[in-house]
Each structure stands twice: as structure tokens, then as C-alpha cells.
Design brief:
351 residues, alpha+beta, eight-stranded mixed sheet, two-stranded parallel sheet, 22% helix, globular
Length: 351
């Protein structure tokens, strides 16, 4: 923050995970509620408030590589391009006695189209000076200390906490905790984090490269991922998905291919404005625990009319919400508005 230099980074994501602000109603703040009564415990928030929180500047404690100031910096996430389908994961949980607990915080999402132009990044400005690219970051991984302390206080071993923070961008305890729950059964979950050298010459098993290649991963990406994960194919697959912009390791390619400039990767999505979206479908989680429950989906569809003579090819029908609950597929009549408030994942189509 002292030298005012900036750095822009582009990350390709298939969804965004937004934190839902939690505000308890005054009368419920000191009252224990059970079951459906908990749905009245919290004040509703709007989708805009969630997006505002997601895109708000965040202070980070770090030494500046340019001026060596310890004042830290601010980071902010905005859209460089907009997708055809915007997937929003609403995070609604808090720690109760160090146990993640699901919260029924209502999020108000309307059926009318809404505009996201305000959340588009303006890019590098003429008044901004970039941090030099040749300043090498520290090779050792330094975990986010507040997040690390919070995870350790929950009972997770330090090794697992460091791995989770490294895998989730060293951002916050919530994202790391989600990663931990998803990787509890990894055979190497308790193996200390070893980043190694990205450009090192350690041998990589060709069979592992071939295995990842069968999943559509290029040889350079597979080689780099396997080096970063000590040759573990499962962890390498996770590494590839969490580093979509990394072109991989070309060290073992033939010299002409290694020296040839790699083509610039086309950006996903579309940067043109306006960026207007409309709610198309939701996925809802039924159950009090974040570790168990049942998922159902509601999708907005055109339902053909059942009136006589309606099959004349005129395409007559009505727009309605349809419930998909395992083998049950029916038109949703009464509970859509309520379910929209507590959905786990929202899908918005660009219009």
C-alpha cells in the first residue's frame, strides 16, 4: 500500500463462492431455535449485498516485493469477462463449538434480469504502475497465520492446515476447511507439504503422464502437476484444476517445441457490456448438517400446454419452475420462492 504499485492476475473459474452476511434478528440473538424456526432467526440479505462483499477490497498482511514495506496490500476480485452461465455458490455456515453449522440465512433473489456491469474490472489504468514481473516471489510457502490458527483451533493438524491453505490460495479458513472435508481420505493427507522446485528435473513416471493425458490433460500440464505433488496422480489432478492458467512444464519436450512461443490462451467468457443475467435454476440442500442431506433442483422451463390442439407446432406453452427430485419431476407450484431464499447454488443465464 505504501508504493501504490499494482499487479493484475487472471484466474479462470467455473463458479464463484460468495459469503452470505449473517445478521441475527434482535429477538433471536439470545434464543436457541430448532428446526424450521431457525429460518426466522436471521435477517434477509440481497444477492447484491453478497456480490458487494465478494468484490470488496480486502487487506492482506504481506511484505511488498518492490519497496519492502510491511504495510501490506489490498486485493479485490472483479470480473474480467462474463460467462454465458454464471454459477454462484452461497456459503451459509458458521463455526459452533468449532463445528461447521449450516445457517438458514435468506438471500433475496428476484426473477427479473439484473445487471453486473459495476463488477467488471477496468483493467490497468494509466495512473497505475505495475509491480516488476522480474521480482521473484519467495519460494517458501508462508501460510495465512490467522487462518492457520483458526484451523488448528478446530482440531486440524498443522500439516493438513498448511496443505489446505496452499490448495485454496492461502485466502481464508472457510475455503481451507471446505477443502479439508473433501480430502479427508487422501492417503497423503498427513504428508508434510513439499513444494519442491517448479522447474526442477525430478523424474516423472511416464505412466502417470499417460493416465492424466487420458483425462484430457496435456503432457506439459501433467508433468508440472506431478512434480508439484510428488507424483501423486489424484493430487496432480486437483492441482491442474486449481491452476487452469498454468501451461505446464516443457523441460522434457523436444528443443524446438520447448523454445517455440506458446500461443496466448483465449479468455473464456465475453467482456462486452451490458452484462445482464436472469435466474435460471437453483440447487437446494435439505438437511441440517453440511455433511449430509439431500439435494434437489428447480429449473425454469417452458412447459408445453396440455390444451387440445396445442400440438400444432406453434410452440405454445408457459414458463414455470420444474422440480427435479431424484426420479420425481413435477411442476413446482408453491415452494419455489421459499426455496430460492435458501438455495445452495444459483445458476444465472446471460440475457
Amino acid at each position: 500500500m505504501s508504493c501504490k504499485k499494482v499487479r493484475y492476475r487472471t484466474d479462470e473459474q467455473d463458479n464463484i463462492s460468495v459469503r452470505v452476511p449473517v445478521r441475527r434478528k434482535p429477538q433471536a440473538a439470545n434464543t436457541y431455535l430448532e428446526g424450521d424456526k431457525r429460518k426466522g432467526e436471521f435477517e434477509p440479505v440481497t444477492l447484491k449485498e453478497c456480490l458487494d462483499t465478494f468484490t470488496a477490497p480486502e487487506a492482506v498482511e504481506l511484505t511488498c516485493p518492490a519497496c519492502s514495506s510491511k504495510d501490506g496490500f489490498t486485493k479485490r476480485s472483479l470480473f474480467k469477462t462474463f460467462p454465458t452461465t454464471l454459477v454462484v455458490n452461497a456459503r451459509r455456515f458458521e463455526l459452533v463449538n468449532w463445528v461447521p453449522t449450516k445457517l438458514d440465512v435468506p438471500v433475496v433473489v428476484g426473477d427479473q434480469p439484473f445487471n453486473l456491469d459495476a463488477y467488471k474490472s477496468p483493467g490497468l489504468q494509466n495512473s497505475e504502475e505495475q509491480l516488476p514481473e522480474d521480482i521473484a516471489p519467495a519460494t517458501a510457502f508462508t501460510p495465512n497465520e490467522p487462518a492457520l490458527a483458526q484451523l488448528e483451533a478446530m482440531g486440524f493438524p498443522r500439516t493438513r492446515c498448511e496443505k489446505a491453505l496452499h490448495a485454496t490460495g492461502n485466502s481464508d479458513a472457510e475455503a481451507a476447511m471446505t477443502w479439508l472435508f473433501a480430502h479427508m481420505e487422501d492417503p497423503d493427507i498427513d504428508t508434510p507439504l513439499d513444494l519442491g522446485s517448479p522447474s526442477g528435473g525430478s523424474a516423472v513416471n511416464p505412466d502417470s503422464i499417460e493416465t492424466l493425458g487420458a483425462m484430457g490433460i496435456s503432457a506439459p500440464q501433467a508433468r508440472k502437476a506431478l512434480k508439484e505433488t510428488a507424483g501423486d496422480v489424484n493430487r496432480a489432478l486437483d492441482w491442474v484444476f486449481s491452476h487452469p492458467d498454468d501451461q505446464g512444464d516443457f523441460d522434457n519436450e523436444n528443443s524446438s517445441a520447448a523454445n517455440a512461443p506458446s500461443p496466448e490462451k483465449a479468455l473464456a467468457g465475453n467482456a462486452t457490456l451490458p452484462a445482464t443475467f436472469k435466474l435460471q435454476s437453483i440447487v437446494c440442500h435439505r438437511g441440517a448438517s453440511i455433511h449430509a442431506g439431500h439435494y434437489v433442483a428447480f429449473i425454469r422451463k417452458i412447459i408445453p400446454s396440455e390444451e387440445k390442439g396445442s400440438d400444432d407446432g406453434s410452440g405454445s406453452g408457459k414458463e414455470a419452475w420444474v422440480l427435479f427430485n431424484d426420479e420425481k419431476v413435477v411442476e413446482a407450484v408453491s415452494d419455489v420462492d421459499e426455496m430460492k431464499k435458501f438455495a445452495y447454488v444459483y445458476f444465472f443465464e446471460r440475457v
